[in-house]
Amino acid sequence: MAQAIPPIVGPVYPMPGYSGSGHGGASCVSSGGSDARQSGGVTWTFGGGGAAQSTSQSCNDTFTSPATQPGFDTTRFQSLYWGIDGSKLPTFTVNPADGASLVTASASGPMTFSSADSNLSQGLLVYKGAGDSTYTTTLHFTTTSNPSTPVALVDASTVGIAAASNIGGVVRVTSQLQNFNVKIEAKRSGTPLATLYGTTCDCRSQWDLYAGFYYVDLPPTGDFTYSTPANHEPVTLTAGTLSDPDGTVASYSWDLNGDGAYGDQANVASPSTATLGPGDHTVGLEIVDDNGTKTDVTHTIHIDNAEPTGDFSPASTPVNHQPITLHATVSDPDQGLSAAPTYTWDLNNDNTFGDGSFDNSDASVTFGPGDHKVVLRVTDSDGKSVDVPKTIHIDNTLPTGAFSVGTPLNHTPVTFHATGPNGTGSPADPDQDPNGAAPTYSWDLNGDGTYGDSAGADVQQAFGPGLHTVGLEIVDSDGGKTHIIHQFTITDAKPTADFSCSPAVPGAGQTVTCTASDSDPDHVAGDPALIEKWDWNGNGTTNDPTDKAGHVVVGHFTVGSHKISLHVIDGDGGETVATHTLVVKDKTPPKVSISIPAQKLQTALKSGILASFASNEPATSKLTLTLSSKMGKALKLTGAIGSASPKLTRAGYVKFTVAISKTAQGKLKGLKSVDFVLAGTARDSAGNISKLSKSFTLK
Predict the structure, then answer these.
(1) Residues 224-303, CATH architecture
(2) What is the 3-state secondary structure (H, E, C) of 344-407?
(3) Would you call the peptide bond into 503 cis, given omega within 30 degrees of 0 as the criterion?
(4) Residue 146 has what DSSP assignment?
């Protein structure tokens, strides 16, 4: 009896092409032989008995690779099968990941044949998902000798295959060694999805070929979201969009306790859940499509146990050697209905808790001066602990005191007297241990910061001139130290210093002699003589040579200002510096000249006389134009008839024009020749003056 081909669900294999040699080599099938094919993780075997075929016959079966076929969906359509005839059923074994045999050679397999048709061929056989009538496969056969004429098909039921299998048609072959062109088409609702081409041949007097695509049912898809609740609070689960790429979602159910069994609640988008304690919890959603394919989605929900909190502080400001009460406050953010947190103390920083039997209560402790670490440990009902450390600082009130300084005189002992802070009594320790010793004193008399030069309330020390620092150290019984420091100055009368130089305003290269005059107001017998040091070239050093009389003789100063300093040092190191500026002037006048180029008289009368002024250094000039004495008297023009002030900013020459006055132009107009004199002075930057005079005649 014919059977429908059931759906086969498994992993999606890529759709391979098929290429095989003739069944058994030179003949279509040899006696007892087999022909194995592999496709998409599926292996099939041909043969296993039957009559031997003529060894003179040969045929080849080939199918093009689906990858070369445009639009071939290798995700949805798999596995191409080929056989010889009904007496040699092909055996299919599937990649173990698939978990099932597609077709077996057993008579009880998913497909049987009519016992009356012993020449039935397995042909090209591909299954598709049952129950989805929108998918169809069609088999096309033409002979290679007449490719335009399709070979007639027979109904599948004719050869014992149930119509429900919808394999796409059967062709009955009645002549041997006939070559065929094969085309297999897959469509859904009439829309082409995939096409495979090939060629084959028959080797029997009669056999039947049929073909189809094995359609793989795709699993449904979906997910769910979840809240992350606080400890001991319900979690909110929400199923998202659930869909099936090739069908519909039939149902879905939840695994809420992580035992792997679904069905705790079914078809509920937001199931109710119990409260969750700390830790990881697995929740799953199982989606089932209309073909029974399942997809399981799981998420691990982590629930944190919020740490308990705690704090503590002294009830009042801690006092040295006085009891301190430490008050604690504790809480558990996710306590709920559980017990309140407990707490205990480590009061001596030895990492051991439970000190003083103060568990779950305020602690009392007495500390001496310094920093003391105290730790409060808080533990919640879930066993989670938090340590809260704090450092309690106890101040040691330092001892107080002062000291007085006697009149400081040069080389005379100065008296220092220790007193209380108000200048009376003795230094004191405000928080002195009743069983401890009174404060002690120690002096630093040389200002080096080291105490111990002397002890006791009254000491004396002589000092020389300068600034002096004296310190008193008061130490209490707890080791607390107070330093009191005073500074005072012993004044040294500094020497006087001055000097004079001759000549007071020298010229360049002229010899200059400077003479010192100095004294030491507080000189006493035994003091060393005054030391005179000169800096006569302004370079800051005082090692310039002096003569035996304390004078310095220097020559050849250049033009400009020169700073000369005299340093006078007394026996106590007191130093006075006298400084004067020596101005050396340049007394050489500039070398200047006037040139008058050739030019026409009448042109000069109208436009001015062209001239040039030359100097060997920067200079300014003032020039006056007159007529020669003789011509001036004759024309009654004895005064200036023009002027100019050419200027040079550096050595060289400059051209200029001397305009002739209108009066002179009127009297000189028409003359054939005029004698002129251009004269004046030129001054350089040092104020040195040179005279200029140029007589010339213009025609």
Answers:
(1) Sandwich (2.60)
(2) EEECCCCCCCCHHHCCCCCEEEECCCEEEEEEEEEECCCCCEEEEEEEEEECCCCCECEEEECC
(3) yes
(4) E
Amino acid present at 447: G
Residue 178, both tokens: 């006939």
Q: Measured in whole angstroms, how far is the alpha carbon of residue 425 from the centre of its chain? A: 65
Region of 75 (left: φ > 0; alpha: ψ -120 to 50; beta: rest) is: alpha
145-155: per-residue pLDDT in tens? Answer: 666 666 666 55
Domain 309-394 bears CATH identifier 3.30.450.150: no
- Alpha-carbon dihedral 428, 434, 437, 442, rounded to 10 degrees: -20
**For the chain, what are the domain ranges?**
19-215, 224-303, 309-394, 404-471+481-488, 496-584, 592-698
Strand partners, 275: 234
Handedness of CA 343, 348, 349, 351 (dihedral sign): negative
Q: What is the pLDDT of residues 306-327, one digit of tens each?
A: 889 999 998 888 888 888 999 9
Q: Which of 26-30, 368-372, 541-545, 656-660 has the least mean pLDDT?
A: 26-30
Which residue in 138, 312, 117 sits closest to 204, CA to CA?
117
CB 468 within 8 A of CB 488: yes
Give SS3 for 157: helix
CA distance 307 to 388: 12
The torsion of the CA quartet 601, 607, 609, 610, rounded to 10 degrees, works out to -120
Q: Which two tokens stand for residue 454?
A: 């002397």
CA 649/CA 657 separation, integer angstroms: 18
pLDDT one-digit tens code per residue, 525-562: 667 888 888 887 777 777 766 654 556 666 667 888 88
Percent of the chain with pLDDT over 90: 34
For the domain covering 496-584, report its CATH number.
2.60.40.10
Six-digit token pair at 257? 């306790």
For residue 50, how many other CB atoms are within 10 A of its CB? 17
Q: Give the C-alpha separation, 260 to 252, whole Å.
A: 14
CATH architecture of 592-698: Sandwich (2.60)
Residue 147, SS3 per DSSP: strand
Distance between first and last Cα of the chain: 153
Spatial separation of the C-alpha atoms in residues 323 and 345, rounded to whole Å: 16
